[in-house]
Write a structure and sequence with these properties.
Length: about 80
């Protein structure tokens, strides 16, 4: 069974603290997905949301995938690397 949670990216954007917290949350549970809502204060267009997703995945590694729907990013951690 997968568990999920929701986080928000606000006016500060992607900070090191946010990325470290995200990594810690994934390390605590093996099969998890996280929804990240990008608030209006952190974006101008949907391109910004895609850029945030790319930065998050490059920081987390190959075991993670993402999907962008509207102004939300859905992250998933897998057991093995995905390419």
């Amino acid at each position: 069974m997968t568990s999920s949670m929701e986080l928000h990216i606000g006016k500060k954007g992607l900070t090191d603290e946010f990325l470290d917290d995200l990594h810690r949350r994934f390390e605590k549970k093996s099969n998890m997905s996280i929804k990240i809502s990008v608030l209006k204060s952190a974006r101008e267009s949907k391109v910004d949301v895609k850029n945030y997703a790319e930065k998050i995945i490059s920081r987390l590694g190959e075991k993670y995938t993402y999907r962008v729907l509207g102004f939300s990013i859905f992250l998933k951690k897998w057991r093995k690397s995905r390419k």
